[in-house]
Amino acid sequence: MYSLIDTHAHLSDLEDLKAALRHALDAGVYAIVAVSANMDTNARTLRIAERHRRFIYPALGLHPTEIGAEYQDVLTFIEERIERCIAVGEVGLDFWRRRGEPAKSEEEKQRQIYVYTKQLEIARRHGKPALIHGRGAWETAYSLAESIGISKAIFHWYTGPCDGKQDLFSLSEDLSIGEVTDIFIA
Ligand SMILES: [Zn+2]
Predict the structure, then answer these.
(1) Cα separation of 48 and 183, whole Å?
(2) Is 183 domain-assigned?
(3) pLDDT tens string 72-110
């Protein structure tokens, strides 16, 4: 049996959490990093982790596609509770243009960059790794993480070229790169 750590699971979104955790245990998963995306899932992730100590490790974050008018409140919520967490996440940038949708406006991109930067600063201040979503924006996501001084990161939804991974690996030996799906290779 393999011993696995799932480094990116949206447990707060699952309808049957108990069954999913049972499947994970049966498959040899011995730890799960539970990521969050907004105020609601941040609170739920913390509650889930409370109930499953030493199995589920919470990460708090505001996802780039979940930024609303109350983002400052979410950032405050995250920083006030980050010491209970194993990482800051899921954070990042999403400049992807979905089929049938207009391109992201410059204003939207700047807002994402602001919120992402604030969360990278939280990660750095508290010495936590960052779990980074970089869909359609991996170069900016990477260079901001590097310039802010993030030394540990996991890239998720990496959409850059394969040879770009050399640069990503130079960020830290602790960094790893996920596939462009939620299935993660750590
Ligand atoms: Zn995710």
Answers:
(1) 21
(2) no
(3) 999 999 999 999 999 999 999 999 888 888 899 999 999
Edge-to-edge strand ranges of the sheet holding 153-156: 4-9, 29-34, 56-60, 87-94, 130-135, 153-156, 176-177
Assigned token pair, 95: 């400049």
The CATH number assigned to the domain holding 30 equals: 3.20.20.140
| One-letter-per-residue 3-state SS of 1-65 | CCCEEEEEECHHHCCCHHHHHHHHHHCCEEEEEECCCCHHHHHHHHHHHHHCCCCEEEEECCCHH
Distance 133 CA to ligand 1 centre (A): 7
Asked whether residue 148 is assigned to any structural domain, the reply reads yes
Query: How far is the centre of ligand 1, averaged over its atoms, from the C-alpha of 107 (Å)?
Result: 23
* Higher pLDDT, residue 175 or 42: 42
Ligand 1: centre distance to CA 89 (Å): 9
> Is pLDDT of 182 > 50?
no
Question: Encoding tokens for residue 48?
Answer: 């889930």
- For residue 149, the CA-to-ligand 1 centroid distance in Å is 23
Instruction: Enter the pTM of the model.
Output: 0.85
CB 112, CB 96: distance < 8 Å: no
Residue span of the structural domain in which 25 resides: 4-177
